[in-house]
Design brief:
25% of the residues lie in helices and 19% in strands. It starts with 9 loop residues before the first strand and ends in a 15-residue tail after the last helix.
Length: 394
Amino acid sequence: MMASGPIENATIVIRDGRIAAVGSGLAPPADATVIAANGRIVTPGLMNAGTQLGLLEVSSVPDTSDQAVSSGPLGAAFDVEFALNPNSTLLPLARADGFTRAGVLPAAAANAPFAGIGAVLRLSEGPQILDLPRAMMFANVGGMAAASAGGSRSAQWILLRNALEEAKRYRAVAHPSKPRDQLLNHLDAEALQPVVAGRMPLAVVAARESDIRQAVRLSDDFNIRVVVFGGAEAWRVAGLLAAHSIPVVLDPFADLPWTFDELGARLDNAALLQRAGVVIAFTLPPIHLSHNAGSALREAAGLAVANGLPWIEALKALTLNPAHIWGIADHYGSLSPGKDADLVIWDGDPLEPSSAPLQVWVRGRPASLETRQRLLRERYSPKQRSNPWPPEYR
C-alpha cells in the first residue's frame, strides 16, 4: 500500500533497511535477492495505536506490570520508556501477527488526571525496541477516573486546565525572585512543556460525548494538539472533530456499554467518523492491550469493515493513520521510497482472523515468526506421544 493507495503487481526494492523504489512492473536491480510474492497481498507492517506491550506481561503478577504508578509525586512526568522489556514474550506474538510498530500507553499515574507519557515501539528483534520516546501525553477523564481526581469530571477538567495554565507560565514564575504557588510539582510542569508548546499531542482518554466536546474546547483554548483516545461516543460529534482536525483512536469492538459513559457505543463508530473526515486509528479493550494485541486488532479492523468502514480505510487505520497521529510518518506507515522497509506478505486478507503472515520484515530485516505459544504447542502436541523424553526435555 502506497500513501496514495494500493498498487497491483508491484515490485518493491529494499536497500539499507529502507524502501528504495516501488512500482508496477518495476525491474529489480541485477544484484538483488528476489522474493516472489506470487500475487499475495503485501502491506506495511501493521501498527496498534494503543497497547501496553513491553509494560505488562501477567496482570496478576506485580513485578511484570509497569503500566501504572499508584503513589509518589508523578503525574504528567510518569514516562513508560524506562520500563520497556524487549524480552517480553508478547512482542514476538504481535510480530507474528503482522505488527511491527505499537503505541505504548501508561494506564494511570498518582497525580491525576494525567496518566503519563507514552512511546512508540518498533517490534524488532533485539534490545532496541524504542522507536519514538515521549511520543504522547495521556490524561484520563470520565466517570471511572473521577475518584482519583476530586470525585467529579468537573474537577478533572478544572485540574487539567489548571495544569496547562501552570505549565504555560512555569518558566516565568520559576525564577527564585518570583513567588511560585502551583499545584504542579516541577517534574510534572517540565513534562508538560512539549504539550503546551504544541510539540507533543495530549491524548485525552474519554468516551462520553460531553467529555469529547470538552477535549475539543481544550484544544481551542490552549492551542494544543489533542487526540481523543477511546471515543465510544465520538460518532455523535464527528463533524466537530473533523472541523478541528482532532483524530480518534477507537476500539472497533465497542458496541455494549461497560460504563455509563459508553451508553452510545456502536459498531459503526469508525465508519461514521471516517465518513465525516476524522482521522482514525485502532486500539483494543484493556484485556487485549498486551495479550493478543495483534490478532485481536486485525479481527477488530475487519469488524469495522463489516460495519461500513471501507477496507482500504481500515488498513490505513492500522498503518498510515497511527503513524501520522503519533509522529512517525516520516519513516513508517506506507510502502513509499525513503520509508523504513517494514513489510508483511500475507497468505490471505490481513483483516481476516484466519489469515496469517508468510514473512515479516522490520527495517529491511527478516523477522522471526517463532512464538512461545507455537513452541509450547509443539512440545505438548499429540504427535509427541511416542517421544521417550518428557515434555520439559523436548
